């Protein structure tokens, strides 16, 4: 272990500082498709009883009208975060009628592209902007790819922890700049080691054959309706034969916040010839927000993002430039189809130890060679992570995945112990042991367990529908208490009122609004 990591661990292990580690915040966003009782994509509108997808703080839609997104508040204990997520699921099920929430990340058997409904957010300018952005995504990447669901894990360390370490290290930058630099360093380490998360938690080794839409691919047939790769962990995170040529040259550098925000601002302001050819509008109708590499910064697909809570009307990148990084959003986690929530406390506890390791360990700048190796390692593991003797690249040398994984888990162990010390019990240590078992025995990984189920003679869709029905029963058997239900219903009603007010007080025309929104990111930072 490095001297720097040792010093940081020793400092946080002091009795006065230990409580800081129980002030980390955790939030979860879980996406899932609504399907009918037969496992077909639900073509019904977003249920009004769930509230407004535009203004509800906890229940919205992602790409499609059928793709729900549940958002928890940020809590100091992931157990509370998961309890929040469970309540949102129970409320949703109380309003879904016969519909189900699809259990895995890869979608159900999808109808043709034209039939997949794009999410609608009403007639306000911001609602229209969200709709046109999604029209642009359909145009650029197809609707099928947008129906994949995942789990986003939001994590922050308390500002007092950063201040403590900044003081100890004699760093003279502003508190904001130091904190941002440390989060960016966390992200660099995440890029180095996130292949491990794909091995441990990847849960999408197979998919419905129709998903490929007849495109060429390297997948194998498991049965007449299912495609897979025998050693895959997460086909969701692989290229699947779909690649964004526009984004191919866009590799935001995570060596500092400014270079990251600059590269995204540039992409949002740089025309991309094939999109220019299509145009932003046709016969007066909007087709996409603009003809640039990215319509907005969130179009950049990445496994992890630096984030800052935005003010009303503020863009994510403006918030980062003005006030620095506040938390990170991990975006590469598959939904585990064996778990009602798609994630459990063991996974969350391990993620905390892993992210804390990324935050506290040395994080040299990524040179271009290492940057490519990080990407290659990640893509190798999503497609072949369970292959016996699989080799990854470390410092330009081949290393066996299992050996590197063991070393990493050993390096993460003191972080798990420190978290247990701060919170009591041994939950983080136990979570680490559960991951060690998966490294020793690949059949314990979620991806291997999914394949084991499919090899019993059921297609991907049959397996997923059965899991969805099992989870629906779990949520419906334990409805919310009357008081909790009333609270959710009040939130839904309030969100519908907020949307109505927005629409009633709209000023100016949408074209002017869209132009101002576009210009806002290109303006100089505050």
Tell me what you see in this structure.
The protein has 526 residues and is of the alpha+beta class. The chain has one domain: Creatine Kinase, Chain A, domain 2, CATH 3.30.590.20. It is built from 18 helices and 14 strands. It has helices at residues 3-13, 78-95, 125-141, 159-168, 175-193, 195-201, 245-248, 257-269, 273-278, 316-323, 345-360, 368-384, 401-423, 427-440, 446-454, 460-477, 482-504, 510-522; strands at 25-35, 59-61, 67-71, 100-101, 151-156, 206-208, 220-223, 226-228, 281-282, 285-286, 304-307, 327-333, 391-394, 397-400. The strands form four sheets. Strands 1, 2, 3, 4, 5, 11 and 12 form a seven-stranded antiparallel beta sheet that branches. A hairpin with a 5-residue loop joins strand 2 (59-61) and strand 3 (67-71). It is globular and about 65 Å long. The mean pLDDT is 95.
Short description:
By secondary structure, the chain is α+β, with helices and mostly antiparallel strands. It has 18 helices and 14 strands. The chain has helices at residues 3-13, 78-95, 125-141, 159-168, 175-193, 195-201, 245-248, 257-269, 273-278, 316-323, 345-360, 368-384, 401-423, 427-440, 446-454, 460-477, 482-504, 510-522, and strands at residues 25-35, 59-61, 67-71, 100-101, 151-156, 206-208, 220-223, 226-228, 281-282, 285-286, 304-307, 327-333, 391-394, 397-400.
């Amino acid at each position: 272990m490095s001297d720097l990591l040792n010093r940081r661990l020793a400092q946080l292990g002091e009795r006065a500082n230990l409580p800081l580690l129980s002030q980390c915040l955790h939030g979860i966003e879980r996406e899932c498709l609504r399907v009918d009782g037969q496992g077909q994509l639900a073509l019904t509108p977003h249920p009004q009883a769930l509230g407004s997808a535009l203004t509800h703080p906890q229940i919205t839609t992602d790409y499609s009208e059928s793709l729900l997104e549940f958002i928890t508040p940020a809590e100091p204990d992931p157990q509370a975060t998961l309890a929040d997520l469970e309540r949102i699921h129970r409320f949703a099920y109380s309003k879904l009628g016969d519909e189900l929430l699809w259990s895995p990340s890869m979608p159900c058997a999808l109808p043709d592209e034209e039939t997949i409904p794009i999410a609608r957010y009403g007639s306000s300018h911001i609602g229209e902007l969200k709709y046109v952005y999604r029209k642009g995504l359909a145009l650029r990447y197809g609707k099928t790819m947008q129906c994949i669901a995942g789990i986003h894990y939001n994590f922050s360390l308390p500002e007092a922890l950063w201040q403590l370490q900044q003081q100890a290290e004699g760093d003279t930058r502003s508190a904001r700049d130091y904190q941002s630099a440390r989060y960016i360093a966390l992200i660099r380490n995440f890029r180095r080691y996130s292949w491990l998360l794909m091995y441990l938690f990847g849960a999408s080794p197979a998919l419905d054959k129709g998903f490929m839409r007849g495109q060429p691919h390297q997948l194998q047939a498991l049965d007449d309706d299912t495609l897979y790769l025998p050693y895959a962990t997460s086909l969701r995170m692989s290229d699947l034969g779909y690649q964004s040529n526009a984004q191919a040259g866009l590799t935001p550098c995570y060596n500092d916040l400014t270079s990251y925000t600059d590269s995204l601002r540039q992409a949002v302001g740089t025309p991309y010839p094939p999109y220019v050819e299509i145009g932003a509008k046709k016969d007066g109708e909007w087709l996409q927000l603009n003809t640039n590499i990215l319509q907005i910064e969130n179009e950049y697909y990445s496994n992890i993002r630096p984030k800052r809570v935005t003010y009303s009307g503020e863009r994510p990148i403006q918030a980062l430039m003005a006030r620095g990084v506040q938390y990170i959003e991990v975006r590469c986690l598959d939904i585990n189809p064996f778990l009602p929530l798609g994630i459990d406390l063991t996974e969350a506890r391990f993620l905390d130890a892993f992210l804390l390791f990324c935050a506290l360990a040395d994080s040299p700048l990524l040179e271009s060679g290492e940057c490519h190796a990080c990407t290659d390692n990640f893509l190798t593991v999503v497609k072949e992570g369970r292959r016996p003797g699989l080799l990854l690249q470390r410092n330009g040398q081949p290393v066996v995945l299992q050996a590197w994984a063991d070393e990493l888990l050993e390096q993460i162990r003191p972080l798990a112990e420190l978290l247990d010390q701060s919170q009591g019990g041994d939950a983080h240590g136990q979570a680490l042991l559960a991951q060690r078992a998966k490294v020793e025995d690949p059949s314990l990984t979620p991806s291997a367990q999914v394949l084991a189920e499919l090899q019993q003679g059921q297609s991907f869709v049959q397996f997923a529908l059965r899991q969805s029905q099992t989870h629906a029963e779990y949520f419906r058997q334990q409805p919310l208490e009357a008081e909790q239900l009333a609270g959710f219903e009040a939130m839904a009603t309030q969100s519908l009122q907020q949307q109505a007010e927005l629409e009633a007080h709209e000023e100016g025309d949408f074209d002017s609004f869209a132009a101002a929104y576009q210009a806002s990111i290109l303006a100089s930072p505050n």
